[in-house]
Amino acid sequence: xxxxxxxxxxxxxxxxxxxxxxxxxxxxxxxxxxxxxxxxxxxxxxxxxxxxxxxxxxxxxxxxxxxxxxxxxxxxxxxxxxxxxxxxxxxxxxxxxxxxxxxxxxxxxxxxxxxxxxxxxxxxxxxxxxxxxxxxxxxxxxxxxxxxxxxxxxxxxxxxxxxxxxxxxxxxxxxxxxxxxxxxxxxxxxxxxxxxxxxxxxxxxxxxxxxxxxxxxxxxxxxxxxxxxxxxxxxxxxxxxxxxxxxxxxxxxxxxxxxxxxxxxxxxxxxxxxxxxxxxxxxxxxxxxxxxxxxxxxxxxxxxxxxxxxxxxxxxxxxxxxxxxxxxxxxxx
Length: 333
Known about the structure:
Blueprint: E1 2-5, H1 10-16, E2 22-26, E3 47-50, E4 62-65, H2 68-77, E5 85-89, E6 111-114, H3 117-122, E7 129-132, E8 148-154, H4 158-165, H5 170-174, E9 179-182, E10 198-202, H6 206-213, E11 216-221, H7 230-237, E12 242-245, H8 250-253, E13 259-262, H9 265-277, H10 279-297, H11 299-332
Parallel strand pairs: 1-2, 1-4, 2-3, 4-5, 5-6, 6-7, 8-9, 8-11, 9-10, 11-12, 12-13
């Protein structure tokens, strides 16, 4: 089928466009947030850039939206055509938790696909049809060497998002060994005055970043309140031992034997010392991490889940349109 989808969350899209469909990605001259297109990523040829002006004439089977504004934008671009819609909810609610009302609450003409069961639990979606499709990622392979007595972490916008993503906790791990931080906006980390123990390494393409990250002894996941991070799932695929705050849906993915998982930060810090002092134990826990993540977050399972959902919503959309057409014929009878 042909899917209209904007490039919003690059890590998520990297897996999504690996399916057996054609992905129409709006692209403008500015390559801004509403027209990034492929964004220079190494995606299959089936991920096709399309001028927004050409969407009206394009065959589109389903629209996958990730931002509230995309719903009306898609309607305008499609010239008013009724096309089935799936809303991907990447985020846990941030306001009035746990009574947060989803912006697409009580909608009978779309389906919300949450990326974690935690999101589904915390959002009040009312009567809107919902499902959960947990993350999958392209497997970078068991790259882990752990050869450097350092820790690694990937956080986008660590200064702006600070406590949400646990940036403030990094100095506690840096007291054990240097913490290297990759991601967008990491150049601002010196503003927080953490000192030399927290090292900003910038926004680096995934292949060189994965290779460098796999040299660090362990991966730190200090996020307090986000959906399950794709960087954590990638680190586990690489057979890295992981040190994880037991928040949101982390406990579904991370067994204790994969490194350490706790809400007690000092417990995680103690575990970091163990991994630093015992490379063999770090490798053993990293192997557990890889086995666990392949069981839950393999790309094949993820794409199969999406295929099933897309087939279902398109079939439902066809039934609805046929019913509406029959009703119209009856009224004209």
